[in-house]
Fold this sequence. Notes:
- There is one protein chain.
- 68% of the residues lie in helices and 0% in strands.
- By secondary structure, the protein is an all-alpha fold.
Amino acid sequence: MNKLLAxxxxxxxxxxxxxAQTATPAAAPATAPATKKEMNAEKAKEVGTVTxxxxxxxxxxxxxxxxxxxxxxxxxxxxxxxxxxxxxxKASAVYPQQGTAxxxxxxTNTAISKEVxxxxxxxxxxxxxxxxxxAATP
Length: 138
């Protein structure tokens, strides 16, 4: 057991030494920027070449343009009144996924259901049992 453990440790040590000896550092730039200002300028240059390519594969420019247009349009719209904000808040609290349209529809449905007369059925009475038996037979 000890021999096996010693062999494993020696193998790990030998492989790590071999990797350390064969690994060469990546080619460093000929002149590294000395100051932070130079580093930022070089980074901006690299980013600029990536962002100013002619092909927009991700659609990021179109999305940014659309967001800019949406922002400009939203700034021209009037802000909602306190009553509108309260109504939106109440509707979203009750129906967080649906909003005010579902709340209005539910209110209409409730009003309609209250207008429909409801039959009272006493299931324990002999009359109700006879009516149920009559309805069940073809």
